[in-house]
Automatic annotation (TrEMBL):
Record-level Gene Ontology MF annotations: lipid binding
Alphabetized NCBIfam families for the sequence: DegV (TIGR00762)
Protein keywords: Lipid-binding
InterPro entries given in the database record: DegV, DegV_C, DegV_domain_contain
Entry-linked PANTHER family: DEGV DOMAIN-CONTAINING PROTEIN DR_1986-RELATED (PTHR33434), FATTY ACID-BINDING PROTEIN TM_1468 (PTHR33434:SF2)
SUPFAM superfamilies per UniProt: DAK1/DegV-like
Native species: Peribacillus saganii
Protein name: DegV family protein
Length: 280
């Protein structure tokens, strides 16, 4: 059985890697006023953060129309027997459900869904693993079993410089945002039951990042090999410096640098930093 791998743009997998691994992408939209942009196609992360600085008000985001998935699956049906479509958490976006609904509308190809319950490059890790297995000719159920196994060790923690973006976008409760702004804290956030919730309230950015490293250490120091992504919102130099420090501290962890692109950056705001990992 020949299996295609589909994901959405919030995995932020570089185009060269998507091309190399034959990963198919459907984009979410970021909207400035009346102008809608397909992220990773019409607008890059760098362009997005510059646009935000020039905009009168914050952009909004929207999931792909079901028709985009239908079109993608119909195109893939000409060459493939099955699709595994892998998406950001269904608790913060309707993208996953839209993909499943589209799969029911297309004949000639079997569509399997996988809800990563997370986003960004941690979502990307699932996609990359699935794509490599698909290229090796693995069956869909075997691939899905591996992704479920990865989920057991997958962790991700992140912090936003300004909780206002998450509050305005409805991705964090008003009460949590209010507490954060009053105390001037830099809360560490986490995905729990598919939605974003505060994990710990920490006073400063430096302490928040240090705490994330401690959480990585709890896993990495227990043995085994890990893969981790450092994720930044327009803070590439800071991410590079953090990576250098962490590589010296955790020789059993392979680190990559990724970013919060337009859609996720809309909700987290510039300056956000995060890290996620899984046991290889």
């Amino acid at each position: 059985m020949k299996t295609a791998i589909v994901t959405d743009s919030t995995a932020y997998i570089p185009k060269e890697m998507r091309d190399k691994l034959n990963i198919h992408m459907v984009s979410l939209n970021v909207i400035f006023g009346t102008e809608a942009y397909l992220e990773e196609v019409d607008i890059t992360a760098t362009e997005f953060y510059q646009e935000v600085k020039n905009a009168d008000k914050l952009p909004t985001t929207s999931q792909p129309p079901i028709g985009m998935f239908v079109e993608k699956f119909e195109e893939l049906a000409k060459e493939y027997d099955a699709v595994i479509t892998i998406h950001l958490s269904s608790g913060i976006s309707g993208t996953y459900q839209g993909a499943l609904s589209a799969g029911e509308m297309v004949d000639g190809i079997e569509v399997f869904g996988f809800d990563t319950e997370i986003s960004c490059m941690i979502q990307g890790f699932y996609v990359i693993e699935a794509a490599k297995m698909a290229m090796d000719g693995k069956e869909p159920l075997e691939i899905l079993e591996r992704l479920s196994e990865m989920k057991k060790s997958a962790r991700a923690y992140f912090m936003a410089d300004d909780l206002g973006h998450l509050q305005l976008g409805g991705r964090l409760s008003s009460a949590a945002a209010l507490i954060g702004s009053l105390l001037q804290v830099k809360p560490i956030l986490v995905f729990e039951n598919k939605v974003i919730v505060p994990f710990e309230k920490i006073r400063t950015r430096k302490k928040a990042m240090k705490r994330i490293v401690e959480l990585l250490g709890e896993d990495a120091n227990s043995g085994g090999s890990y893969k981790a992504a450092i994720i930044h919102a327009n803070r590439e130099q800071e991410a590079e410096e953090w990576k250098a420090e962490l590589e010296a501290q955790f020789p059993n962890v392979e680190f990559v640098i990724s970013y919060f692109g337009p859609v996720i950056g809309t909700h987290l705001g510039e300056g956000a930093m995060g890290m996620g990992w899984y046991k290889v």
